[in-house]
Specification:
Helix content of chain A: 55-70%
Shape of chain B: elongated
Number of helices of chain B: 2
Distance between the termini of chain A: 122 Å
Number of helices of chain A: 6
Number of strands of chain A: 0
Largest sheet of chain A: none
Oligomer: heterodimer
Order of helices and strands of chain B: HHEEEEEEEEEEEEEEEEEEE
Distance between the termini of chain B: 141 Å
Order of helices and strands of chain A: HHHHHH
Shape of chain A: elongated
Number of strands of chain B: 19
Strand content of chain A: under 5%
Structural class of chain B: alpha+beta
Largest interface: A-B, 49 and 64 residues
């Protein structure tokens, strides 16, 4: 009696399993190993980055002197101030060539002073 | 009993399996209904086909209308353009009529020059002029037109400059002749070519970089009318070629500047090696008998290196070291050499100090090795730095200089100069000073000088 009941129950279970297999099921994606690394960074990377940022901040170049500052630095050493409005832009170009040779000025400083004089000459 | 249980179990399993299986479709439509449905579908198909044909017709009609619309828009645009042109022509005609009416009443306006900064060539005259009154102890006071010194600059491009400076001096022909003579000296004439940011070639009659006084002096720059005594040991200019330039050091304006040159050099006025024949400025290549020759056949070489340290605008220090050496007598037996240490200091816009130590040495036929040396130091202070409210004080600068000289042949001179500069404008200066002389040379006497200088 018991064995026949067990066979019957077994057949019921088989039929339920067949019915369940006929229904679609949805499964989730696997977690990739790279995501795990990003979520858990090593503690030493941030200290290195801070040190590099500090070095960069120390190495920032000083501000270059402006045309007016260079003018007072180089030109007022020898003669009273000549006002930019005294000459035209083309005349300042000629004069700065002469002064660059006479006073042995660095080329970049001479160009900066010339730009200052031409921009403020008004003509 | 067994059989009944078995049958019962199979029945239950069969029911379960049957429930698990998908349901079967059952057909309950009759043949007539199917045929009717089939006829309905066929009729719908025919109707759809007709609708499609009508849609196609409507689409073609729409395209034709669209093309007509585009043509109409194009015509409208052309008409608008013609209208605008007609309006502009009418406005221009009205403006011309108005301009003609105005021009008939006003004088012609001069043309505005093009942007001069783009002009590649440029000619310019700079320079200075000095007018003096001088009174030397033991002599009559006198007005002097001391100097008119124009500088001609011609820029032939971005890297080429020709520059020349002259001194026009009036000289009394007395005591031997009446009248006066105008003396013209070519103080320098050189062609400059800027090879690069760091190298410039200068060739011609050069202002020599022995110290800085020669290159940076002019009547309106010197603040004291007389040159420093020790400068008489050095040639101010020489004919030759030079490479010069400046190299920045760091970002704060510090720089190193250099000059290296070769010139004909000092020579002998009479060809001998006697000390009195030494001529510092006469060896210019072209002789009075039209021969072209370096009098002693060997050029002199020299150089200067300078270091410039700016702390901030108006606060700076410069130190320079220079020298020159070469033969001087025609036989080439004797060498003339000189060395200069120069320095300048600025502490603010009102205080300036500068000076040079000069030493030269040369061999002679009659006095052996002669070693003249000397130094000078000058300070200036603009009273504007005191922030006083008295009128005129802010335009006054007090200056003083100490000179010491030993000519190597027994003459020793000390000179104390005190004076002031009044800045009438930034380029018009009124200078006055008194020179106290202490010398074993009887020709050196105290002197009072007033000078009006103008830089242009």
């Amino acid at each position: 009696m018991k064995s026949r009941l067990g066979v019957g129950l077994g057949l019921i279970l088989i039929s339920v399993a067949v019915y369940a297999a006929s229904i679609d099921s949805v499964t989730g994606d696997d977690i990739k190993p790279a995501d795990a690394k990003a979520a858990n960074p090593k503690p030493t990377d941030s200290k290195k980055a801070d040190a590099q940022e500090a070095k960069k901040a120390e190495k920032k170049p000083a501000r270059k002197p402006s045309g007016a500052e260079l003018y007072s630095m180089h030109c007022n050493r020898c003669h009273p101030e000549r006002y930019p409005t005294e000459r035209t832009a083309a005349q300042w170009k000629t004069i700065m060539l002469h002064m660059r040779v006479r006073a042995n000025l660095p080329a970049e400083d001479a160009r900066t002073i010339l730009k200052f004089l031409q921009e403020n000459s008004g003509r | 009993m067994k059989t009944r249980s078995l049958i019962f179990g199979f029945a239950i399993a069969g029911c379960a399996i049957r429930l698990a299986m998908p349901p079967c479709a059952e057909a309950d439509v009759s043949q007539d209904e199917f045929n009717a449905l089939k006829e309905a579908v066929r009729q719908q198909g025919e109707a759809m086909q007709k609708l499609g044909q009508e849609v196609e017709k409507l689409r073609q009609t729409h395209m034709t209308d669209e093309q007509k619309h585009q043509k109409d828009m194009e015509e409208i645009r052309q008409l608008r353009e013609k209208l605008g042109e007609t309006q502009r022509t009418a406005a221009s005609a009205e403006q011309k009529a108005a301009d003609a009416a105005v021009a008939a009443q006003m004088p012609p306006v001069s043309r505005v020059p093009i942007d001069e900064a783009t002009v590649n060539h440029n000619f310019l005259i700079l320079g200075d002029a000095e007018f003096q009154y001088a009174k030397t102890d033991g002599q009559h006071g006198s007005f002097l037109l001391a100097d008119f010194a124009p500088i001609f600059l011609y820029r032939g491009g971005d890297n080429i400059l020709f520059e020349a400076g002259f001194d026009f001096i009036l000289q009394n022909n007395a005591p031997n002749s009446p009248g006066s003579t105008t003396t013209i000296n070519l103080s320098f004439a050189q062609l400059d070519y800027l090879f690069s940011d760091y190298v410039t070639l200068a060739a011609g009659n050069l202002l020599l970089p022995l110290g800085t006084y020669s290159e940076r002096s002019a009547g309106w720059l010197n603040k004291i009318p007389d040159n420093p005594l020790a400068r008489s040991f050095l040639p101010g200019n020489g004919v030759g070629a030079e490479l010069r330039g400046a190299v920045p050091v760091g970002e704060n304006g510090k720089l190193l500047n250099y000059s290296v040159y070769g010139v004909n050099g000092p020579s002998s006025a009479d060809g001998t090696g006697n000390a009195s024949a030494l001529d510092l400025g006469g060896n210019v290549g072209l002789r009075s008998d039209n021969a072209v020759a370096n009098l002693h056949g060997s050029p002199s070489g020299g150089a200067r290196v300078g270091w410039f340290f700016p702390y901030k605008p108006h606060y700076d220090f410069e130190l320079g070291l220079s020298g020159q050496s070469g033969e001087w007598d025609n036989a080439g037996r004797h060498v003339w050499s000189a060395g200069v240490v120069d320095a300048s200091l600025h502490l603010g816009p009102c205080f300036e100090a500068k000076g040079e130590y000069i030493r030269s040495w040369y061999g002679t036929d009659d006095h052996g090795n002669v070693r003249p040396d000397g130094w000078w130091a000058q300070v200036g202070y603009k009273l504007a730095g005191l922030n006083l409210e008295f009128p005129g004080v802010n335009n006054l600068e007090l200056v003083g200089r100490y000179d010491f000289l030993r000519d190597g042949l027994g003459t020793r001179t000390r000179r104390y100069t005190v004076g002031g500069v009044y800045y009438l404008t930034n380029t018009l200066l009124f200078e006055g000073d008194y020179e106290f002389l202490n010398s074993n040379d009887p020709s050196q006497q105290d002197q009072f000088i007033l000078q009006l200088s103008y830089g242009f």
